[in-house]
Amino acid sequence: MQRLSLKHFENFPEGNHEIVLNHYDDFKMHKDIIDRIGQLGYTLTPSKLTYQINIALHGEEKRNVRLFGNNTENFFMYYFPLMFDRSHELHPDVPEKKIPLMVFVTVSPEAATELYNTINTFVRSMKIHVVLSHQGRKMEMNTREMRTPFHILVTTVSNLHHHVTKGLIRFDNCFYLVLVNIGLWKKSIDYVNLTNEMIKCGWDPVNKCSVIATSETLDDTTKEVYSYFSFRKHYDFNIF
């Protein structure tokens, strides 16, 4: 499995796609997900960016996505309903033990907790099990909840390294890996070792698992960290 180590900026080719804003039905999205979007007060007409991200992730040439800007709430709504719906479509059964469908990785326990609460708010009315692993010292508090099947894992980059080296999770059915605010991640972390361990645990970043990376800016740290997870080409989206 070859790492592309891509750092360059690549805009989505808007001129190649005619996009007409309409309704989430355009994505053949599950009714419960569309209803939840409306219940949370969001418009049922997806943004142009959501259509573009859908093409990038699920089009003929599947690409990773990098999002840059400081509107974190909109970041989540641009991609999460698409990911949530596609994961349910590809794996509608009860999740297997230790094998999440989506993994969200943050730099800090505080960021993990905030994202965990955001995801739980969205899936509250659905039978979706979200697990939070953010304790750095009391690892038993993290692993206790991970002993039962779960759909979504929200964790820190340091805890992710612990979980893959200890064989606590597998990525065989992981369709999306979301790297949150990677501009704040430390360059000193051995990301090559981390991704190699993830691959040993079933992560397939070439044929199966899409990577979504978010950051406030496209700086050197962002480019460097993302490059270690770069096994596919990507498109960049600026959100101001």
Give a summary of the structure in a few sentences.
The chain has 240 residues and is of the alpha/beta class. The chain has helices spanning 31-39, 48-58, 72-90, 109-123, 139-145, 157-165, 191-200, 220-228, and strands at 64-69, 102-106, 130-133, 152-156, 176-179, 210-215, 234-239. The model has no long low-confidence stretch (mean pLDDT 93).
Throw out a few tags for this protein.
37% helix, alpha/beta, P-loop_NTPase, 240 residues, 8 helices, 7 strands, seven-stranded parallel sheet, Helitron_like_N domain-containing protein, Rossmann fold, single chain
Explain how this protein is built.
The protein has eight helices and seven strands; from the N terminus they run ααβαβαβαβαβαβαβ. 37% of the residues lie in helices and 15% in strands. The model has no long low-confidence stretch (mean pLDDT 93). A seven-stranded parallel beta sheet has the order 3-4-2-5-6-1-7. The termini are far apart. The protein is an alpha/beta fold and 240 residues long. It has helices at residues 31-39, 48-58, 72-90, 109-123, 139-145, 157-165, 191-200, 220-228, and strands spanning 64-69, 102-106, 130-133, 152-156, 176-179, 210-215, 234-239. The chain is globular, with a radius of gyration of 17 Å. The chain has a single domain (64-239), classed as 3-Layer(aba) Sandwich (Rossmann fold), CATH 3.40.50.
